[in-house]
Amino acid sequence: MNLHMEKPLQARVQDAIIDFISDKKLTGGDRLPTEPELQELLGVGRSTLREAMANLESKGILERIQGKGTFIRQIPILLENGLDELRSVSEHIRSVGATPSTSRLEVTFLAADEAIAEKLRIDVGDEVAKIERVRRADKALAAYCIDIVPKKLLPQVTEEEFAGSLFELFDDHDRIVSHAESVLHPTVLTRRDLPELKSEIGLFLLFDEVFYDSRGVALCYSNDYYSADIFDFRIVRRR
Q: pTM, whole model, 2 decimals?
């Protein structure tokens, strides 16, 4: 079990505990080793270990039961993805063998204001579908997605069809996503923003994007918040 040196110690200890769960093929309801055993295994102090375990508990991964020990509530999933590869949330989740799903779906139809019209290159007042979704990797909260699509591109689509991958939905309607213009922002969300959070706040990487097809037609304007607990994005920089 290796502690990666590019992260702060407490974060590395969390990763090491998750690696231990994966390596030992533990599942929900299994008990972790005792604190002294984990201290020896990881080579860290008691306070650092407790802080790491408390953070995993606040994320819903671990559960402490007085007098019995620390147990696994859900299996953590860490997705390592390159920023240079254009994938949907569903594709990222499937790539590591997890099952993507939508635990909350809200679709509203409204008239495009000036900002939306400029993003999507449509007229002010054109009808758009605003799709708000909470996406999960197995049971873990993976992403919070807000997507805005011109209604004329998918005129016959029902609300239920928006629950899955939008990329696949566009494919089914001969609108192949070719590329995206993206701006990334590290972001903090609270339970007021996202009631599904298990802790009071959550760290996310916001992808503010417009997706286009190969002809340059704007298909979708998205604000996708990727959970830092689930996604570990990487980038290769060359000179």
A: 0.74
